[in-house]
Each structure stands twice: as C-alpha cells, then as structure tokens.
Amino acid sequence: MEKGDVAVFWELSQTTSINGDPDLALGAIQEYAASHGPVKHKIAYLTGPNEPSRSARLNQLGVQVKHCPKNGQKETVVHSMVVDVSFHCALDFPQTKTVVFVTGPDRDFTYLARVLRSQGKRIIILVMKNGRIAKVKKPDAYYPRPPLRTPDMKVNRQIHHPKHPPKQKKKDIRAKQVAQRH
C-alpha cells in the first residue's frame, strides 16, 4: 500500500501507564505511524474529569483533545471515536491512507476497522504491553475476531457460531431429560 496521510485516534483511558509523560507517549505513537506517511491528525479522547494541565500539554504537542464524559453508567468515548473516525475518513479527509488506533485489548473498533480496510485504508493498532506502547503484529488476528487466549491478554469467553452451540456436558443433558419426563 502506498504512503499517505496518517490519522491517530488515541483512547487515553486505555493507556494510563504512559499518560503521565505525553511527550514520550506521543513520540512512540508517531514512531510507529510515521513510516506510513506524515501524521496529519492526532486526536485524543479523555473519559474522566476535565484535566486542564494534561489537555493543555497535549494541545501544545499538536494533539486535539476531546472530552467524553460518562452518560450515566456508559462511557461515550468509543461512540465518539467511531463517529469521528467515520466522518474523518469518509467526508472530512478522504485522502487519509492510514488510521492508527491507540487503544486497549477490548476490540471495540472491530467493525469499524473492517469497514475501513474494505475502503482501502491501512489499519495500525497500538496497545499497552508491559507499560509501553506496542504494535499489534498481526492486526488481522486482532480484528475481526479475538483469539480465545493470547499471552498478553486474558480473554476467557468462548465464541460460538449460532449453528454450532457449545457442547453440553453429559450430566447436564441427563438432568434435562429427567426434568422433561416429570
């Protein structure tokens, strides 16, 4: 894929161990992103209370900061990022060739990444690993479906296809049969 404009979307709540030094964090992010083209847009999302000193420092570094307070129990940051990335790539800056997600292991952007890839965008995923930012080496293994287990992420839920439900244990099947007879 050819080089072109790069846009970075940074979910600050997922990178808490490096947020204390935004210069260092942004340097690492730009190091990964710059090999794909000039980083034209950097947007960070805060979920907690407004932190003027952190926001001001990020602004000085050329990062646009968006505050996404919780709406009751639900965080709005993921929804804000999905809308922003969609508009950014489709309407505002369609010349963007690479989208960088700085996020956690929760895979909130699975569908969006798939759609962007189908539109010819390169997707780079950066996550926290051992207190540092690391590039996901195989983004297609990260998206669209999480692995059942990886060394750095604990994913305990099993994923089943609707046509292939999980196998039941024999004692559970037997208990159902007995219950149906009575």
Automatic annotation (TrEMBL):
Supply the InterPro entries for this chain. Answer: NYN
The ranges of region (Disordered) come to 140-182
Specify residue ranges for compositional bias: Basic residues: 157-182
Ranges for domain NYN: 6-131
Lineage top rank: taxon: Eukaryota
**MF GO annotations:** RNA nuclease activity
For this entry, the protein name equals NYN domain-containing protein
Q: Which organism is it from?
A: Ephemerocybe angulata
